[in-house]
């Protein structure tokens, strides 16, 4: 039976670790968000933000959308905006991998690159300036509750269902924080004792997709009460574990997934029993022009 492409967003596989963690008593599962049609977990909030804005009448086909992104959200928005006939400009630092820029343009989006030294903060500043001065509309993944609600409605229920209600720990890298906010809310409603673990880079690390935000740029959707523990990872850990996911588990993913996996393995080593679910947020093919797998 044929499907509408948007119906393929979500219901991603949950697979058990076969080699990186095999100790009895503690199960480690990876949720493979790269299986979404746009290749990342960001398909979920991109769809929910656009669909909800259209349903409320906040945007229509005459709206000029703009959004700052480090990559995955931009790809998802480019794909979904095109399916809804919407014009979108995506703003990202100029050191983004070539694959990401090319993919957004392939979907028909306009891509604006801001100075690498300004990071994603510079892209956000540029986007807000365009909203103020040029009449653009920003979905604003950093402040939009439709971001985390996507995970409350889909990611959390899928994890609960696929673990048969046995999940004890959920591990997610934190960028916009939408994934961890929405999934936490749902899982804690089902089992208040679930431990929600957020993953951030240490002070020396630069890991695409994971951020420790300056106070002025902290996502407004972030509620620290939804996170029980924060674990920091180094850039070396994230790189090493992204490569290990591919070579040991057959899971091809990026650095933020490597960082989450490193944290999940450290967590697993602390436990005598439990069921850990760790998010693998995208596919590794959008990092091939970087030195991650070189």
UniProtKB/TrEMBL annotation:
It is an enzyme of class 2 (transferase). Gene3D superfamilies: 3.40.50.1100. The keyword Ion transport does not apply. Residues 7-282 form the Tryptophan synthase beta chain-like PALP domain. Pfam families: PALP. Keywords: Amino-acid biosynthesis, Cysteine biosynthesis, Pyridoxal phosphate, Transferase. Pathway: Amino-acid biosynthesis; L-cysteine biosynthesis; L-cysteine from L-serine: step 2/2. Its EC number is 2.5.1.47. One of its GO terms (molecular function) is cysteine synthase activity. InterPro entries: Cys_synth (IPR005856), Cys_Synth/Cystath_Beta-Synth (IPR050214), CysM (IPR005858), P-phosphate_BS (IPR001216), TrpB-like_PALP (IPR001926), TrpB-like_PALP_sf (IPR036052). It catalyses: O-acetyl-L-serine + hydrogen sulfide = L-cysteine + acetate. Its cofactor is pyridoxal 5'-phosphate. PANTHER family: CYSTATHIONINE BETA-SYNTHASE. Belongs to the cysteine synthase/cystathionine beta-synthase family. This is Cysteine synthase. It comes from Robiginitalea marina. The gene is cysM.
């Amino acid at each position: 039976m044929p499907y509408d492409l948007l119906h393929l967003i979500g219901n991603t596989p949950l697979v058990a670790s076969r080699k990186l963690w095999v100790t009895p008593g503690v199960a480690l599962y990876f949720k493979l968000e790269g299986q979404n049609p746009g290749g990342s977990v960001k398909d979920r909030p991109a769809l929910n933000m656009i669909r909800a804005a259209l349903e409320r009448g906040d945007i229509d086909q005459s709206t000029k959308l703009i959004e700052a992104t480090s990559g995955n959200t931009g790809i998802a928005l480019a794909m979904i905006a095109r399916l809804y006939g919407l014009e979108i400009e995506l703003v990202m630092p100029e050191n983004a991998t070539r694959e990401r820029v090319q993919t957004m343009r392939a979907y028909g989006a306009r891509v604006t690159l801001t100075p690498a030294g300004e990071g994603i903060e510079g892209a956000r500043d540029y986007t807000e300036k365009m909203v103020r001065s040029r009449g653009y509309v920003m979905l604003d993944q950093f402040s939009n509750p439709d971001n985390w609600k996507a995970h409350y409605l889909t990611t959390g229920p899928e994890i609960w269902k696929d673990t048969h209600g046995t999940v004890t720990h959920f591990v997610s890298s934190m960028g916009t924080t939408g994934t961890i906010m929405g999934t936490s809310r749902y899982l804690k409603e089902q089992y208040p004792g679930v431990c929600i673990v957020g993953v951030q880079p240490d002070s020396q690390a630069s890991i695409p997709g994971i951020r420790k935000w300056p106070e002025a740029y902290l996502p407004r959707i972030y509620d620290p009460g939804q996170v029980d523990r924060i674990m920091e990872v180094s850039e070396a850990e994230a790189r090493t574990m992204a490569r290990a996911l591919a070579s040991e588990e057959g899971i091809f993913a990026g650095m933020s997934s490597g960082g989450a996996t490193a944290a999940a393995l450290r967590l697993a080593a602390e436990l005598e029993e439990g069921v850990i679910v760790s998010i693998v947020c995208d596919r590794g093919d959008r990092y091939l022009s970087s030195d991650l797998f070189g």
